Amino acid sequence: MADALHDQIRNFILENYLFTSDTSALGVEDSLLGRGIVDSTGMLEIIFFIEEQLGVKVKDEEMIPENLDSVSRIAAFVSSKRRAA
Amino acid sequence: MPDTLLHHFDSAAARSGSATALAWRETRWSYQDLRTAIAGAAAGLAARAPARGARVVLLLRNSPQYVALYYGALAAGLVAVPLNTQERASVLMQQIEHCDASILVGATDHPEWPALSAAVASSGRTVIQVAPRDGEDALQQFLRDVDGTDGAMPAFPEPQELASIIYTSGTTGRPKGVMLSHANLAVNASGIVSYLGLTPADRGLCVLPFHFAYGNSVLHSHLIAGAELLLEENLAYPHLTVQRLQDDAVTGFSGVPSTFALMLGRCNLREFNLRKLRYITQAGGAMPRPLIERLRAELPDARVFIMYGQTEATARLTYLPPERLESKLGSVGMAVPGVEVDVQLDGRSLPPGEVGEICARGASIMQGYWNNPAGTQEVLKNGWLHTGDLGHRDADGFLYIDGRSVDMIKVGAFRVSPQEIEEVIAAIPGVEEVAVAAMHDEMLGQAVKAVIVRRDGAALEVRDVKAHCRQNLAAYKVPKQVEFVSVMPRTASGKIQRFKLA
User: Fold this and answer.
1) In a domain, B432, yes or no
2) Domain ranges, residue B439
3) pLDDT for the residue B499
4) Residue B450, in any domain of the structure
5) What is the distance of C-alpha B476 from the center of its chain?
């Protein structure tokens, strides 16, 4: 299940920001901002993806690097929100 | 005192000494620390540069190290060339070759650093690596990195000497290097200090990249005023940025329209205590009226300055005094100190109400484009800078922008040349013909749209085009929309009708 979530998030980022299906192009721990994969508006689009596609509401104060700056952080954040729901 | 940034900075450093100049992550550099870092950078760069006036390119995100290197290059009589940190190594290498840079200095954590530093080293140029170190050891580490531990501040260059080159998109598709003298930088920064009323009591927060003329002007204006500048690298986490505005009692914040769209889209500013925030500046394109009104409603105590400028004018050309925001909504105001602005057609000044090209002259206008006399002559004519922007004045002399006279897309606040993107896409096998135009974007104002005619039998897909662009261009230049058509819309004379592409 967790792997499926990782894949879903990674595929979204690969498809929309790196325009490839080659999973080796993005490690799950890679910093999305540090590597220049997304910028400020890209991060907002990822929030929309989390809310619309993954069904998890992101509060303003939850928009922090610890929750959003890599595939694994997003997956952990989404999983914990789903557990708490 | 000669009118250069360095002289102004040195006076501010003498006055503000132990006061914080720059705050970045956990690092705090006082004016004295920064002066030490600048002297060290100047010594280290001068020892490696072949001659006075040699170009030093910088690939660093906003950080105290960037500031020390920029000012250090200036102090050493070298020319600082800040590179766009969003660009790819291949484009940056073109700029390095174009300005025949002698030295590349970059941060080791930049994603393009491995490719760019290898290419630069193999071309025989000097490469200096700087660790983007944070915390108390940052200053000593920086001095070791630049080999400037014993650096003494050198004698400063004269105002008319070349200080910096900033690359900007040109209409031909090849980047243009805007040449700015020490006097250009000083005059524009001093004008900004004057109308914003900046003092050592101010504490600004900058999310704008320093390689961008607007971010550059925020940096210089705060440092010559002896104020404190808090550095951020982006606005990816708007809530954290607004929290910092509150917690650090920030007095000034600068942004482009998308900055405020992001901030207001995700934060309710009324929930924060932002009473110390005395001014907001906005430039980089027209901000939609509802956004201005919402900003004013959520920040009733802050004075909102709407501004207009261009890299070719160092940064700032006009500003709208906050007290006129209501009565002149939609205007970009009047000329900043040291600049004269006119609206012209065929070299003739137009009366109020008539639309023409916005022209400017004064001490902040660039020296020309580096190694491009033809390009320079196109825009510096009869003593005036021809901005390529269309506008008119009202009866009170307030300026309004009415569009652009040349094809250029403005993504966020970045100028993007359609030709540059067309050249990249045209190199894809399977592309018969391509044309690029602006499309409306809710957040950024405009985005890039590419319209392509495929070669017969070519199996080219949208993702192939975007992937190729991403490999060769900064992310904001990648077409948001790619459309395949069978024929391009053309005029009777065969010219592509870009307005029909959007």
Assistant:
1) yes
2) 409-500
3) 75
4) yes
5) 14
Q: How many residues are listed for chain A in this entry? A: 85
* B113 in contact with chain A, both atoms CB, cutoff 8 A: no
- Residue B103, helix vs strand vs coil: strand
Q: How far apart are CA B244 and CA B239, in angstroms?
A: 9
Domains and CATH numbers, chain A: 2-20+28-84 (1.10.1200.10)
B444–A41 CB contact, under 8 Å? yes
Domain assignment of residue B420, yes or no? yes
Residue A2 has pLDDT above 70, yes or no: no
For residue B85, give the chain A residue with the closest CA. A36
**What CATH number should be reported for the domain holding residue B469?**
3.30.300.30
Q: Is residue B49 part of a domain?
A: no
- Of the candidates A25, A9, A24, A23, which has an alpha carbon nearest to the alpha carbon of residue A69? A9
Q: CA of A68, closest CA in chain B: separation in Å? A: 9
Per-10-residue mean pLDDT, chain B, length 502: 90 93 96 97 96 97 97 98 93 94 95 95 95 89 91 92 91 82 96 96 97 95 97 91 96 94 90 96 88 91 94 95 92 93 94 95 96 95 94 96 81 87 92 92 91 92 94 92 91 77 78
Give the position of tokens 């100028």.
B415
**A69: closest CA of chain B, how far (Å):** 10
Residues 43-62 of A with CB under 8 A from B: 43-44, 47, 60-61
Whether B234 contacts A36, CB under 8 Å: no
Helices B31-48, B64-75: axis angle to 10 degrees equals 60
Sign of the torsion formed by the C-alpha atoms of B383, B388, B189 and B99: negative
> Can you tell me the distance from the alpha carbon of B85 to that of B64, in angstroms, rounded to the nearest whole number?
16
Q: How far apart are CA A39 and CA B179, in angstroms?
A: 28
Residue position matching structure tokens 């690097």: A65
Supply B206's token pair: 């900058």
Tally of domains within chain B = 1
